[in-house]
Specification:
alpha/beta; Rossmann fold; 10 helices; Vit_B12_bind_prot; ABC_Transporter_SBP; ABC-type Fe3+-hydroxamate transport system substrate-binding protein
Length: 263
């Protein structure tokens, strides 16, 4: 028996190297399948990467079917403190299934540290390698832990519409932008995802607090015709929501792609 400790301090006992992993977190699904192909035997409906992953689906991230996950006989379930409900984690653990819970990362380095702990801990047992840290993780750490460039824009970053929801304090996406020279104006908000009124958002631009609108394509699929229409005359950029908010191997390409997309 080998016992690990997850991000929340809970013990994760593994009697054997895990060979059947169910992931409730899209970014972790991609990271694990990219690093150790074949371990994932079940995932949520929103686990869209890698696109060729062909495993049973067990519902959404917020409301997965814990019973369906248990029926897949996993050696380990991967969850996230923000994306998954505590009661689902308790249900799985109550059924005797080890669950690793990742803390919702507020920064890119925090996400990379958490990924390293998972991939060089429980999943290193499955990989059976003396050097379990994948090359993509080392490259992501190199790219994203460098000193941020000077601020070149101050942005409002909506992630939802009807009602409007924007990036606030301590968000992974906000830190991604900061490390590329773009600060977001709600970084000091009381909430991680504030819900300001549209008039208040527009006023940020009118007052000169913000000079850029950053619109990701998930969770709300903003487009040239959906989003900019609410902010006439405001400079905007459309970005990949996956590049902005997923932690995993996509971070390597995300650095290049977002750097090119942002003004």
């Amino acid at each position: 028996m080998t016992t690990f400790t997850d991000d929340l301090g809970a013990e994760v006992p593994l009697p054997e190297p895990p060979q059947r992993v169910v992931s409730l977190v899209p970014a972790l699904t991609e990271a694990v399948e990219h690093t150790t192909p074949g371990l994932i035997v079940g995932a949520t409906d929103y686990c869209t990467h890698p696109p060729e992953l062909d495993v049973p689906r067990i519902g959404g991230s917020k409301y997965p079917t814990a019973g369906a996950a248990a029926e897949l006989r996993p050696d380990l379930v991967l969850a996230n403190a923000e994306e998954n409900r505590p009661e689902d984690v308790r249900s799985l653990r109550g059924a005797g299934i080890p669950v690793w819970v990742m803390e919702a990362p507020a920064t890119v380095p925090a996400a990379l540290t958490s990924l390293r702990a998972l991939l060089t801990g429980p999943l290193a047992m499955a990989a059976g390698t003396a050097d379990p840290a994948p090359a993509w993780l080392a490259e992501a750490e190199r790219l994203w832990t460098a000193e941020p460039p000077p601020v070149r824009a101050r942005a409002v970053v909506p992630v939802w519409r009807k009602p409007w929801v924007v990036l606030g304090r301590d968000t992974f996406g906000g830190d991604v932008l900061h490390r590329l020279g773009v600060d977001h104006v709600y970084a000091d908000a009381d909430d991680r995802y504030p819900r300001p009124k549209l008039d208040g958002l527009r006023q940020r631009f009118a007052d000169g607090d913000a000079d850029l609108l950053v619109l990701p394509d998930e969770p709300w699929a903003f487009t040239d015709d959906d989003g900019p229409d609410a902010f006439p005359g405001v400079p905007y950029v459309l970005v990949s929501g996956r590049d902005l908010t997923w932690y995993g191997p996509s971070l390597v390409d995300a650095h290049r792609k977002l750097s090119a997309a942002l003004p």
